[in-house]
Amino acid sequence: MLKIKRVYDEPEKNDDFRILVDRLWPRGLTKQRASVDLWLKDVAPSNELRTWFSHDPAKWSEFQKKYKAELKEKSAILDSIQTLEKEKKSITLVYGAKDTKHNNAVVLKDVLDEKSKR
Which terminus of the chain faces fewer neighbouring Cβ atoms within 10 Å, N or C? Predict the structure, then answer.
């Protein structure tokens, strides 16, 4: 099972295996406080896409298309997440953005959910 959660929210037991899916380490968080098991910065949007998007909800639709195109080039990383999901039973993708509806973890979870249906 895949879940998403802000890395700043308090870790819970049911988070199980926590993967940080941001390119940059979350500001003000120590590794202990973040409670991250794995940091997959290479699955995050490119610096160019991240900077362009700048968490602007007006750019959300276009961001999703561009990020999904980038993810097509990262199938090995997506496969490794799915393998971990099978091993751990539950994975929590954690991200630093304040906006819980318009962020890369939302898109990544959608892509992984679609991929697992095939």
Answer: C
pLDDT tens digits for range 77-108: 999 999 999 888 789 999 999 999 999 999 99
The dihedral formed by the CA atoms of 92, 93, 98 and 102, expressed in degrees to the nearest 10: -120
- Distance, in Å, from the CA atom of 44 to the CA atom of 21, rounded to the nearest integer, reads 6
User: What's the first-to-final CA gap in the chain, in angstroms?
Assistant: 16
Q: Round to whole Å and give the CA distance between 109 and 60.
A: 15
Residue ranges per structural domain of the chain? 2-117
The alpha helices in 4-118, defined as continuous H runs, are 31-34, 47-53, 60-72, 75-88, 104-117
- The reported pTM is 0.94
Q: Which residue has tokens 């962020």?
A: 103
- As given in the structure block, the two tokens for residue 61 are 């639709």
